[in-house]
Task: structure prediction
Amino acid sequence: MTRAEYNDNVKSWSGNVLRFAVWNCRDMMRSEDAVQEAFAKLWEQRENISVEKGLGFLLTVARRYLIDCFRHDAVVTRVHEELSKDSETVTENRATGLSDEMLNALNQLPEIQRSIMQLRDVEGYSYKEIADMLKISDQQVQVYLFRARVNMKKHLKNYNISK
Result:
């Protein structure tokens, strides 16, 4: 293909290649890039391509360019999603670490203290209700709860979690 034939191809087929690219990706800027890429490749391969096969070559190059762009976009999107998941995981791990320390501290409490702390601080039962459930006095509930909180504070102080 000579320079004059190449220029004729540009004049004749640029509109067709652009319409083809726009129809495939619905993005004018990317379509224009695909057309530029197709004609650049045609120029590089001008000695190996006959004039009759010029349009087919241009459409194939434009299509492959658009596919590469879509694949690239998919990879970029996936990487962004993975990075955001990783940052969420780091945040969750920090929170889980705190939760693990809290659970560890709770597990070191005597059973009665752990039960009372659960009923009072987590489930919101009153001293009277807890006393009735466990068949102990209100004063014992208060004492056990006080001791449980002191023990939790001591345990968590070792991890610089409590004040």
